[in-house]
Amino acid sequence: MVLLAGPCLAACTSSGGTPSAAPSPTLTPTSSPPTAPASTPPVTPSPTTTPAAIDYGGQGVRWPRVARSAPPPALGAVVTLDRVQRGDGGTLAAGLTLPRVGGTAAAPVVLTPCGTRTLVTGSLRRIPPSGPHDVLVVIDPGHGGRAEGTHAPDGTREKDVVLDLARRAAVDLRGRVGRVVLTRDRDLEATIGFRVALADALRADLALSVHLNASPETTRSSPGTSAYGSVADPAGRRAAGVVYASVRHYLEQWTPTVRRWAANPDSGALYRLGRNGQDYYGLLRQAHVTWVIAESAYLSAPREAALLARPAVRAGLAGALADGVVAVTSADTPGSGWRRPLTRPADPPAPPLPGRCVDPA
Ligand SMILES: [Zn+2]
After folding, report:
1. How many angstroms is it from 84 CA to the middle of ligand 1?
2. Do residue 9 and residue 108 come from a single domain?
3. Whole-structure pTM over 0.90, yes or no?
4. Do residues 160 and 204 make contact, with C-beta atoms less than 8 angstroms apart?
5. Residue 74 forms beta bridges with which residues?
6. Same domain for 171 and 102
7. Residue 149 alpha carbon to ligand 1 centre in Å
């Protein structure tokens, strides 16, 4: 069975509940982009929700919508310029970017990467939230620490490749958008709550989570690239289409190597529904700003892994992700590639990680 989002997403973006498979649309493969609105909503809503049809990106496609909780205050973030003291004991390492979730500007309470609220004191630099004349983008390399994500056939770990891609994308974005903040710039474990809180506290204009996909069908001939947006966020649905279009455009040059990137039925700008018609993935379900999860290629597939091992391809793919971010935040580009996703049961529970999450000290 092809996994729509693979173990990598099951392990790192669906926390905060145990989403179950919800009534999902049956597959109706469409050429991309679809040209006509669905005559009926693609899902059967649960009796407890009343999703209203929405439109995104001017495409005329209707999607369910669910209510969101009130956003937390936009308190910005802090960067630890040196090792700092935690109010609950111990220290936090230099160079961490932490969402401020309380306290005062002089004595901030932050959320640590492992998800603990604590006062921090020491040498800190404040990052104010995005404003009306500002563009702030959060780039989120998936996984990290104990959570390695998926693996290439040669053992290369998703967490390392996506960190490299995210760093490259952040560099590429310098001077092209106002500010860029990475959720992690090293191999550290970060909870979904931490990632969501950082983008929320900064009121990011766009947050992009960088992942690579996995499939047991490692020998299949059709590669796949996809981007997920939230069913509750029309801007996110558009953004997923824009990022998908940019990445697919770049990858299509490798068609002689891995054949058509959009041929796989799991390719496209997608959503995935969980319980009660909400987003399956916790990252999208919990966020209050626009997120896109990019699953740019299958790291588990030998030919795609071989491409991703080439520095030039990593640079090109990171550039395509950056181009997508610029197009989302600075233009009215509508994007393309939206399609109804395959019906999927919930991913099997990820095996527990050894040990416990440890914040860099
Ligand atoms: Zn992943």
Report:
1. 30
2. no
3. no
4. no
5. none
6. no
7. 5
